[in-house]
Specification:
Low-confidence stretches: none
Number of helices: 3
Radius of gyration: 16 Å
Strand order of the largest sheet: 4-5-1-7-6
């Protein structure tokens, strides 16, 4: 019996959790989502994601990036840090990997 081809699974799924800064009304998730959409490069072209990369924002202050192409988690950290610097938030917020596929935005602890 011939095998049926499986539907292509997403190769990478990353989550950026910005709930802590959003709880204090410091961080705008919609603006960050638009920034990622405009800046992520696919085949050396920024802003043309097509169906290869999908960016969704859910109600619990998380952005989910699903890529069907080779995609680096480090690239998301780089873009997040650029966004924070652009909005002069880099001095108060840092990007921390909380698990294998999740980044969290946290305030620096000054204790």
């Amino acid at each position: 019996m011939p095998r049926l081809p499986r539907p292509p699974q997403p190769k990478h799924k990353f989550v950026i959790d910005y709930s802590r800064p959003a709880a204090q009304d410091v961080f705008d998730g919609a603006e960050f989502e638009k920034y990622l959409h405009d800046r992520i490069k696919v085949e050396n072209k920024a802003g043309q994601l097509g169906d290869k990369v999908k960016i969704t924002r859910d109600s619990s202050n998380k952005i989910i990036i699903t890529a069907n192409i080779p995609f680096s988690k480090r690239y998301l950290k780089y873009l997040t840090k650029k966004f924070l610097k652009k909005n002069t938030l880099r001095d108060w917020i840092r990007v921390v990997a909380s698990s294998k596929d999740v980044y969290q935005l946290r305030f620096y602890s000054i204790a």
